[in-house]
């Protein structure tokens, strides 16, 4: 081999080495990520408000996004809600059940999971509470507008104004109670220490008592819940993505979306812009003194 | 660089590009085929409709017409801020009117103060005209003299029906920007002042049943518990937020709710809701008299029995009133059960003073 040949080979090797170094440097971050980066994401889905069809839609959309996004491997529900509209609460329950089919869903009760809020939580794999957080209030109520035909109106039937007789509303509230209580019994079957009729008292329990009664699983903060969800999904390294619930409008926070009589009534909170109808609510606490009310349980 | 080499290089590039696209597309299709995240309609066992919808409680029939033996005058108290008015007891009023009896609503003697002497006097005059007196949910308590008057009326053979619901205090609250003001106004009360004269007392809290109820925990079932005429023909009644009526041995329970709980103490047991003590009947519910409740289960039978109770008394000790066709003592047959043949000594004393009063008034 001549000197000329030797130096040519040396140049080729050098060029190859430089190219290899450059390519390697370009690929290295990806390989590093693959080797040491998170295995997937845990989505923290917030429910931090009363449940109306709008707030429920956001949470349901977030859960659907979690199911469809391949990088998300587990969901933690961050619940602080006194409940709200019955129909929206049932939608949330079904959305959580559907999400549970494809990934672990763990709930962290960061304040209160009452009534419809607990309905949302109950389908998850595990429920984490703190001693001061609250769970329960498994009950239904209906607010009824004034019966009869309002003055100055012509309607086509006796129930057009109030939508149903009191007896019919009572039966419907009972049907909703059966669905709610039955769902809680079915979902918490193994651990629940309360009978269906005891549950129907609709008491709100402290987190610690909730664990004792089987309404929740463990005491722990939201980071414990996130780690549990990641562990259930088989993630040792994970990223946390927070999906926030919508903030209520400034007006409603100031109480200015109330009725003309100054109270935040069911219509103002759950109704359709001032139209007063029967509202079926899975709600803890009172929105106002409604004209008449049918309650399915002793303390709902 | 020569042209053939360029062509060869370009060809290699295109081939590699195509291969990359095809492999990616294939991987994508394969990935879709694997699916992985497909979900199905979740199973919600409690939503099974066969278990979900409650069975409606039988709501049919008609309230039987009250016994039409002799025309009687039934006076309903409306002078004490009573929460229950004519519309709320329409089925009872209809049963009485269809039986040929007269129903009047006593609105007071024109005096603004019910506890004044003139108020009591007006009540006495009204009771003179009456064969039966109904007091339902008085917001204003009966004064001692008024209670004496009603008690004496019962001791003289007049029938007294006392109805009481859970006492309420109506509160109106207004709130703006977190500042709230509330005003308390009178709600409804219970006729305890009168009931106490006859050894009866209405409890203040409602009864509930979490398992065996008429589709709501506050709608409890009642069943006959005595031989009293109030329960004749009754198999099962429904009360709404009924209160228990406590009584001594002198009174008998007609209809009781079994295995129900009291709201205040949460103690479960059998509680009397309809009680009869001689000429006085006390019932811890008014909903069963309303158009909404009067035909639920056997409530229509109970309403009919109540109507019969009101018109089957034998009133003595009164000279009769100026109100027209008031029946004189002895001119009618006693119907129903448990009508008092006479009065106790103690009652006679109070009855005598009132009799004097009414005699003078009528003379």
- Residue share in helix of chain B: 25-40%
Query: What quaternary form is this?
Result: heterodimer
The N- and C-terminal alpha carbons of chain B lie at a distance of 143 Å
Q: Which term fits the overall shape of chain A?
A: elongated
The chain pair with the largest interface is: A-B, 46 and 36 residues
Span of the ends, CA to CA of chain A: 96 Å
CATH superfamily of chain A: 2-enoyl-CoA Hydratase, Chain A, domain 1
- Total domain modules of chain A: 1
Provide the CATH topology of the domain at 73-168 and 187-311 in chain B.
Answer: Rossmann fold
The chain-level mean pLDDT of chain A equals 86
Name of the top-level CATH class of chain A? Alpha Beta
Rg calculated over all Cα atoms of chain A:
27 Å
| Portion in helices of chain A | 40-55%
Tell me the Rg of chain B in angstroms. 35 Å
The class by helix and strand makeup of chain A works out as alpha/beta
Mean pLDDT of chain B: 80
Name of the CATH architecture of the domain at 73-168 and 187-311 in chain B: 3-Layer(aba) Sandwich
Architecture overview:
- The complex is a heterodimer of chains A (300) and B (363).
- Chain A is built from ten helices and twelve strands.
- With 300 residues, chain A is of the alpha/beta class.
- In chain A, the strands form two sheets. In chain A, strands 1, 2, 4, 5, 6, 8, 9 and 10 form an eight-stranded mixed sheet that branches.
- In chain A, α2 packs parallel to α3 and α3 (86-100) runs parallel beside α4.
- The longest helix of chain A is centred in the N-terminal third of the chain and has 34 residues, at 3-36.
- Mean pLDDT of chain A is 86; it is low at 255-263.
- Chain B has a domain at 73-168 and 187-311: Rossmann fold.
- Chain B contains eight helices and 13 strands.
- Chain B has helices at residues 3-34, 49-52, 90-98, 117-128, 144-155, 192-196, 299-311, 345-362; strands at residues 73-77, 102-106, 132-136, 159-163, 168-176, 179-188, 200-208, 219-224, 237-240, 243-247, 252-262, 268-277, 280-283.
- In chain B, strands 1, 2, 3, 4, 7, 8, 9, 10, 11, 12 and 13 form an eleven-stranded mixed sheet that branches.
- In chain B, α3 (90-98) packs across α7 (299-311) and α5 (144-155) packs across α8 (345-362).
- The N and C termini of chain B lie far apart (143 Å).
- Classes of the chains: A alpha/beta (300), B alpha/beta (363).
- Chains A and B meet through α3 and α5 of A and β5 of B.
